[in-house]
Design goal:
This protein is α/β, with parallel strands linked by helices. The strands form 6 sheets. Strands 11, 14, 16, 17, 18, 20, 21 and 22 form an 8-stranded mixed sheet that branches. The relative contact order is 0.14. Residues 74-82 and 554-580 have low confidence and may be disordered.
């Protein structure tokens, strides 16, 4: 038997080496997972001590949210942290505690990892920063560069520094949407739209090739209003003129050429930043080098441990509801009718809870789900407990439907609300099938037996039924608003029609009662209940053991995962991916979904316009 050739032996050695390497890597990964699991299961809660003379570093990551969704650990395992989020109330609580904490001497804003924040959250955190500054403690901000949203927060600082290679572009609010009517025509898909409200535009991306005049007018009005609010905030914080800021955006290319093409020098010359330094030089110049530092999450842990001794018996319940409104049970990050009704019922039955605040951040969704939630809120009021709705970034359409059950409705100036209207959308594929030689035929016992078959098209009778269902939903919506706001149906109809309003404009129109933050809404609920000694209690669905484990696992992974992937998911979607995303979202508007007649109250502006 001849010996294997040298080449064969060489390939065999390479194969054995690859097998050994694969085995080794597999064992190392397995060992790493075991170590992380051990840390999660057996590491006790760390006692956090705040050092004297500390610098509090506020460095929020990802998106600012009202409620953290149950996270998926897979992106963290892959080193991708782009889906991170920071809870708004955590930041507000930390700033309030630090303002009164003699151990904290300085606040530093590091905003590089903040990827998205709404105008309402800018408003809320900005107010908290101003309250912190009122304590006399300095606020410093540093960025390698600043996005428009990041800069809105940084503008509250006493001193702003940026890296010499950084940039600051104030591009304003707005953006483009994709419209698929042409594609639907090529595919021979017929889009049937049923709506009540001249400005209800949630199906336009599939039924038109551009914005309708009504949607364009409404959207433009809103972005202009929010941009004016942004400019006023920055101008006041930096002592600049609004027209100077407008010129910075409107004439940026010309101004950049005059600044020798340096974006950082332009920002410095225009007074938007105070210095251009490396991070190390900035901390040295500001006397921060060598000072003890404590970051948001660790300081929050220390503060909440100290607050756990509160003894007031009376409670004001707080429920946070964020996301699109759907039927059934949903995880945090979506509003499920059954899930939210269960929490509201818990507050109603708890004798220690004397009032309830519902914090809403939603563009709307299924009208029936909104009604289930509204009915349960009404039962809380019937039980003698005041109900206050606090609107977050968005509380429009189905969100406003829910708000009609409240004793008081609070909003922020830049809340997106209104969108009082109803819509449904049904695609049918009879022409698509005909194009490839397929036809349909059959029998039925009534005119409706085949009238809703999406493969053969909607019958006139079914189309009429769907429109009647939408009209009925709109009538119900108008009546709810009229009853809750003390208006006539005609007055509400004039404000409705699917029009979207800012919180400030909604106050003028009588659609909300007061402008203010969540903490003020909670205090108002306590006042309505006649409480003097009370404390806030957040009501939420406890996480399952598996979900608790995942949250702890992600926390541990967050300390060891690479930030190299943090920008991987921020690339612009290609058109096919965006089409699939839009189809998945907008096809939820079909009133024939799941074999039942459903109508939807959904705000398209809330989903389609970029306010970051």
């Amino acid at each position: 038997m001849s010996k294997p050739s040298l080449i064969r032996r060489g390939f065999g050695a390479i194969g054995r080496f690859i097998d050994a390497l694969r085995t080794l890597l597999g064992r190392l990964i397995f060992l790493f997972i075991l170590v992380v699991i051990a840390l999660v299961l057996f590491a006790g809660p760390a006692v956090v001590r705040v050092p004297q003379g500390a610098t509090l570093v506020l460095a929020p990551k990802g998106t600012i949210v009202e409620q953290r969704a149950v996270a998926n650990p897979l992106p963290m395992l892959l080193g991708v942290n782009a889906l991170a989020s920071t809870v708004l109330q955590d930041i507000v609580d930390v700033l309030a505690a630090a303002a009164a904490d003699e151990r904290v001497e300085t606040l530093v804003l590091e905003l590089d990892e903040l990827t998205a924040i709404s105008p309402v959250h800018i408003e809320t955190i900005g107010a908290a920063l101003e309250r912190f500054k009122a304590s006399g403690k300095p606020v410093l901000a540093y960025g390698s560069a600043f996005t428009q949203a990041q800069y809105a927060l940084a503008s509250h600082a006493d001193t702003i520094a940026m890296h010499p290679m950084g940039n600051l572009l104030l591009s304003g609010y707005g953006g483009n949407q994709l419209f698929f009517a042409g594609l639907m025509e090529r595919l021979k898909v017929t889009i049937h739209v049923f709506r009540a409200g001249t400005h209800k535009a949630a199906a336009e991306q599939f039924s038109r090739s551009d914005l309708s005049p009504e949607a364009r007018e409404n959207n433009q009005q809103l972005v202009d209003e929010f941009w004016a609010q942004y400019l006023q905030r920055v101008a006041d914080n930096r002592g600049l003129g609004i027209e100077q800021l407008r010129a910075y955006s409107d004439n940026f290319a010309t101004l950049l050429r005059a600044a020798d093409n340096s974006m950082s020098q332009l920002a410095l010359r225009q007074g938007l930043v105070d210095s251009l330094d490396s991070k190390q030089a900035f901390y040295l110049d500001m006397g921060q080098e060598g000072r003890p530092r404590i970051e948001l999450n660790r300081y929050l842990q220390a503060v909440r441990s100290a607050d756990s001794t509160e003894t007031a018996e009376a409670r004001v319940g707080l429920i946070v509801a964020q996301g699109t409104i759907a039927l059934g049970e949903q995880q945090p990050g979506l509003i499920g009718a059954d899930s939210l009704v269960s929490l509201i019922r818990q507050a109603r039955r708890d004798e220690a809870i004397k009032a309830l605040v519902l914090r809403l951040d939603t563009p709307g969704g299924v009208a029936l789900a909104s009604e289930f939630i509204r009915e349960e809120l009404q039962r809380v009021r019937d039980a003698g407990k005041p109900v206050v709705v606090s609107m977050g970034s968005t509380a429009a359409s189905g969100g406003y439907w829910i708000a009609t059950a409240a004793d008081q409705v609070w909003a922020s100036a830049s809340t997106v609300t209104g969108s009082i209207g109803v819509i449904g959308m049904v695609p049918s594929f009879e022409n698509t099938l005909a194009e490839i030689g397929i036809s349909t035929d059959g029998v039925g016992t009534t005119p409706l037996s085949r009238g809703g078959d999406l493969l053969s098209g909607l019958s006139p009778e079914m189309a009429d039924i769907l429109q009647a269902n939408v009209d009925d939903g709109y009538s119900r919506f108008l009546q709810l608003v009229a009853d809750s706001r003390g208006m006539s149906i005609e007055q509400v109809d004039a404000l409705a029609q699917g029009k979207v309003w800012s919180g400030a404009r909604a106050l003028e129109l009588g659609l909300v009662d007061t402008l203010g933050e969540l903490d003020q809404a909670v205090a108002a609920a306590a006042e309505l209940a006649g409480l003097e000694d009370w404390q806030r209690e957040e009501i939420f669905e406890p996480l399952s053991p598996g979900e608790v484990f995942l949250q702890q696992l992600i926390t541990e992974l967050g300390g060891v995962s690479s930030s190299l992937g943090s920008h991987a998911l921020l690339a612009i979607k290609d058109p096919i991916e965006e089409l699939w995303s839009q189809l998945s979202r907008k096809m939820q508007l079909s009133p024939l979904r799941a074999g039942s007649l459903q109508i939807f109250t959904l705000c398209d502006f809330c989903l389609g316009v970029n306010l970051n």
